Amino acid sequence: MGRLWAVAGAALLLGAAPAAGPGLVRVRLDTSLGAITLALDARRAPVTTANFLAYVDDGRFDGTVFYRAARSKARPGAGFVQAGVRTDLRRALPPIALEPTSGTGIRHLDATVSMARGPFEASATGNFVLTVGPSPQMDARPGYAGYAAFGRVTGGMDTVRRILAQPSGGGTGVMRGQMILRPVRIARAVRLDGVPRPTGRPKVWLILRGAG
Q1: Are the C-beta atoms of residues 48 and 125 closer than 8 Å to each other?
Q2: d(Cα 48, Cα 40) in Å, to the nearest integer?
Q3: What is the pLDDT of residue 1?
Q4: Any idea what the Cα angle at residue 121 is, between residues 66 and 60, rounded to 5°?
Q5: What DSSP letter does each residue of 93-123 carry, written as one string?
Q6: Is 33 strand, coil or helix?
Q7: C-alpha angle 172/166/51, rounded to 5°?
């Protein structure tokens, strides 16, 4: 046990990311404000994790942005940030089934990774949120399906907090005042564990960029 702690300590001193635990797959988001490391729970949320990794492995998140900062009025410094393909159908993959928290047991605590979705349960595609502080209102409860939490932020929460603090405005409805005025770019999303498994689907956004 002492040797394991020594190895872990050395890794931290050298700046290396700690190894993923059983059933976890790590992803690093390289943003214009710093890196964020996620650990996705492929064992408890296999559908949601596989979907997210498909976007990563295809490069569909590369060049997208964090575009929303939803700050809590009741709890200063808390809330969530949202990123992904927005409504760009050129990057989007087919929507997936909802894996509710009542089934996975993964709650919306501080530093949770969760999928954004539309009004229908099976409508999540390529948009996600990172929480700052507990967000139990996103969990499933009787009469409400909630959102699919599927992992944790294991590194770079300081970057997430900086994104949450970015000036915002615009938007309509529930997003009113929450659109980041200067969106935070995701230069690259890369899988840190396992072998990439690209979907093989056409990368339409790259084809059209080349044609332009």
Answers
A1: no
A2: 9
A3: 36
A4: 35
A5: PPPB----HHHH-----TTEEEE---SSTT-
A6: coil
A7: 70
And the tokens for 19?
């190894």
Backbone angles phi and psi of 150, in degrees to 5 = -145, 15
Which amino acid, one-letter code, is at 209? R
Instruction: Give the integer Cα–Cα distance in Å for 154 and 175.
Output: 27
In the predicted model, what is the mean pLDDT of residues 126-150?
98
Q: For residues 85 and 199, is the Cβ–Cβ distance under 8 A? A: no
Neighbouring CB atoms inside 10 A of 199's CB total 13
Confidence class of residue 2 from pLDDT cuts 50, 70 and 90?
Answer: very low
Q: Map residue 168 onto helix, strand or coil.
A: strand
Bridge partners (DSSP) listed for residue 114 = 129, 149
pLDDT at position 207 is 85
pTM of the complete model: 0.89
Is the CB of residue 98 less than 8 Å from the CB of residue 45? no
Neighbours of 14 (CB within 10 A): 7
